[in-house]
Each structure stands twice: as C-alpha cells, then as structure tokens.
C-alpha cells in the first residue's frame, strides 16, 4: 500500500544526506568534544562547525546558539531561567501556545507566584495586538512568549512587529519558532527577539536534538548542574551525531527554501481547490493565507464521524492528524481550536494536514479520494 505522509507538523522524514552525515559522525567521530586528544579535538571541531553553520543561517553569532535535547527543553529552560535568574515577575503568553510553553508558564506561576496573562485571540487564530499593548501598560518585569507559527493552524505572528513592541515597552521577548525554523527566513540581526528555539525533527533532521538562540548578554543561567559544556549553559556531553545531523538538515532546508516553499504552496493551494470542488462546505480553521506548511480544515461531516476519521484515513495509508486529540476513546478538543471555534464546530471533525517537499499532487488526490469515502 502506498503511504501518504501529511503530518509534517508532528515530525518529518530525514533527508538522506542527513542520515549519511550522522552515520559518518557515529562511525568515525566517537571522541568526546571535551577531550583534549586528537579524537576529542576533531569532535569539538564538528561541534563548532555545526554551531557556526546554524548561526550563519539565522544571521546570529555562533556563541548565541546553545544545543539542547529538543524544543521542549529549550522552551522550559528559557522561561524558567527568565523567572529564576532574570527576576521576571510576569509572563504574557497566549492560550494557543504549545504545551511546552503553556504548562511551563503554569508551573512557574505555581512555584514562583508569578503573574501569567493571556493575550486575546481573534476568531481567525491571530493574536490581538491591541490587547497585547494594553497588557504591556502594566509596570512589571515581564517576558512575552508568543509562538511564530502555530503548529495546529499555521497562523503566523509578525515577529518583527511584536519584537519592536516588546522593545518599546522594555520587556523580554521569547518566541517558540519550532514550526518556522528551516521553513522561513529568520534574520536575528533584524528581529528584536531575545530568545528563540528550534527542534531538528521538524526540518528533516533527527529527533532528540534542538537548540536555543540566547541573545548575547541576556544573563540566562543553566538549568542543569554538571560539566562546562555549552559555555556552562547546558551541562551534559553533546550528542554530536544529532547536532551534526541537525546542522546538515538546516543547511539543506535553507539552501532549498525557495524551491521547497514554491512546491509546497502549490500543493496547499491544490488541496484547497480540490476541497472546494468535493466538499464545498468545508472551512479553514485559521486563515487561507496562513503558513504554507499547514492547513487545518473543518470538514462538513457530522460529529459522529469525528472519532473514527483518523483511523479510517490510516486504514487507507494516509497519515494526517486531527485538531483534537483522541485519548483512550474520549474526544478531548484541541486547546488551540477551543480558542477559535464554537462548541458546535468543535465537536465536528477538523483535520490538520501538514506538508513537506517530499509530498506530491498524487498524495493530495489520494487524501481527497479517501475523504470521499468517509
Ligand atoms: N513547540 C512547537 C510549536 C511544536 O510544534 C513542538 C513539537 O511538536 C514543540 C514545541 C516541541 O518540540 P520537541 O518535539 O523538540 O520537544
């Protein structure tokens, strides 16, 4: 059976070149980057070349890139150290953030008694900037944490605009850029953001590795106690093969950005056209001009189809995800869609279809054919 993978916001397939690079490092570069002998120095060289390459792609300096085990760790670290070490007393975030941010903010509220405020969300899933400015009128040491591209709906935040607003109000700005790194140009000299995070498995790199961009002189401190790795900001022997694979994946992503974006945008538009033809009553959750890698749609099926739709598609070899997570038989609505849809619509099946450059028009045709049998 031909498999159709349209769940690239969850994770992506590795590029063959990444596997090659990782295999080479695993086989030949087994030295510890902290060792002073030649094997260690060679490993250290790979580590620093990877850091430089990542920094160059984002127009940052190498020392501002700190390797972590994943995007979740990077988000946890930044928020926690901002409260613990930078004495942030308030986090302004939104209810549509990834749980790596939302649950961390809640934990910090409980542990440190900080204030957590949520910016209002417009019905199309965008942040209400007027509300953000209003929240910023309160005088309190604040960190704003708002994601760049929403992982469920693909709604995009204007990073530069929000960065300027934060700068004008003299507050820190963190953005979860896990869904946009490698898929959008991010110029860290031009965007006034203090912290961003990335996860390699979202851009055709390996799972279990990510990085944080920590702007110079931010004062952020380590979460872990241990060795002096990552300039003392992240103790633990570096996963060299993962890091080298991530750097290679990012390099390929940015080298192919324009062609991949064009190809994926064409597929996304083709899908919208086919849905308009076959299911004219479907609706887009978010905006039609959202980020090119994601399309979240409310299908015009009855609510009783909701529980089975993913299973049904999976039986036909199609991997997509739903706006709602099915947990042990009960249907828990997505916390993101819950902020945007009516209770009635929330019960109906929404699908998150997310693309990569590996997808083809045939994949979309197969999805449409399968949806016709629901
Ligand atoms: N933030 C966003 C927006 C995500 O989509 C994800 C992954 O699902 C994460 C954070 C977590 O990244 P990781 O899987 O590397 O922990």
UniProtKB/TrEMBL annotation:
Top-level lineage group: Bacteria
Residue stretches making up the Aminotransferase class V domain: 4-367
Cofactor names: pyridoxal 5'-phosphate
EC number: 2.8.1.7
Family annotation (InterPro entries): Aminotrans_V_dom, Aminotrans_V_PyrdxlP_BS, Cysteine_dSase, PyrdxlP-dep_Trfase, PyrdxlP-dep_Trfase_major, PyrdxlP-dep_Trfase_small
Alphabetical keyword list: Iron, Iron-sulfur, Metal-binding, Pyridoxal phosphate, Transferase
GO molecular function (one): metal ion binding
Catalytic activity: (sulfur carrier)-H + L-cysteine = (sulfur carrier)-SH + L-alanine
Gene3D superfamilies associated with the record: 1.10.260.50, Aspartate Aminotransferase, domain 1 (3.90.1150.10), Type I PLP-dependent aspartate aminotransferase-like (Major domain) (3.40.640.10)
PANTHER family to which the protein is assigned, alphabetical: CYSTEINE DESULFURASE (PTHR11601:SF34), CYSTEINE DESULFURYLASE FAMILY MEMBER (PTHR11601)
Family according to the record: Belongs to the class-V pyridoxal-phosphate-dependent aminotransferase family. NifS/IscS subfamily.
Stated name of the protein: cysteine desulfurase
Lineage summary: Bacteria, Pseudomonadati, Bacteroidota, Flavobacteriia, Flavobacteriales
């Amino acid at each position: 059976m031909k498999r159709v993978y349209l769940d690239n916001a969850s994770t992506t397939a590795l590029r063959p070149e990444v596997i090659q690079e990782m295999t080479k490092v695993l086989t030949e570069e087994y030295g510890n980057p902290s060792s002073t002998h030649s094997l260690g120095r060679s490993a250290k060289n790979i580590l620093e070349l990877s850091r430089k390459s990542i920094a160059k792609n984002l127009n940052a300096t190498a020392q501002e890139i700190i390797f972590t085990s994943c995007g979740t760790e990077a988000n946890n670290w930044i928020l926690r150290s901002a409260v613990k070490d930078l004495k942030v007393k308030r986090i302004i975030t939104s209810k549509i953030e990834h749980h790596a941010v939302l649950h961390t903010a809640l934990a910090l509220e409980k542990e440190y008694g900080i204030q957590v405020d949520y910016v209002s969300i417009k019905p199309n899933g965008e942040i209400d900037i007027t509300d953000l400015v209003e929240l910023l009128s309160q005088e309190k040491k604040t960190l704003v944490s708002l994601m760049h591209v929403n992982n469920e709906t693909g709604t995009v935040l204007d990073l530069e605009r929000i960065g300027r607003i934060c700068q004008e109000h003299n507050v820190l700005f963190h953005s979860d850029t896990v869904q946009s790194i490698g898929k959008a140009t991010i110029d860290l000299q031009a965007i006034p953001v203090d912290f961003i995070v990335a996860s390699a498995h979202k851009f055709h790199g390996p799972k279990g590795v990510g990085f944080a961009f920590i702007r110079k002189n931010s004062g952020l401190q380590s979460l872990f106690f241990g060795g002096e790795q990552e300039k003392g900001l992240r103790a633990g022997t570096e996963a060299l093969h993962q890091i080298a694979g991530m750097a290679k994946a990012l390099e390929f992503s940015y080298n192919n950005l324009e062609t991949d974006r064009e190809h994926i945008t064409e597929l996304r538009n083709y899908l919208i056209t086919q849905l308009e033809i076959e299911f004219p009553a479907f609706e887009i959750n978010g905006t039609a001009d959202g980020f090119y890698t994601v399309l979240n749609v409310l299908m015009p099926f009855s609510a009783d189809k909701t529980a089975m739709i993913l299973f049904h598609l999976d039986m036909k070899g199609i991997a997509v995800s739903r706006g709602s997570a099915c947990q042990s038989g009960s249907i828990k609505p997505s916390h993101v869609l819950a902020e945007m849809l009516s209770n009635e619509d929330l019960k109906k099946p929404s699908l998150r279809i997310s693309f990569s450059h590996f997808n083809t028009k045939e994949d979309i045709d197969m999805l449409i054919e399968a949806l016709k049998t629901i």
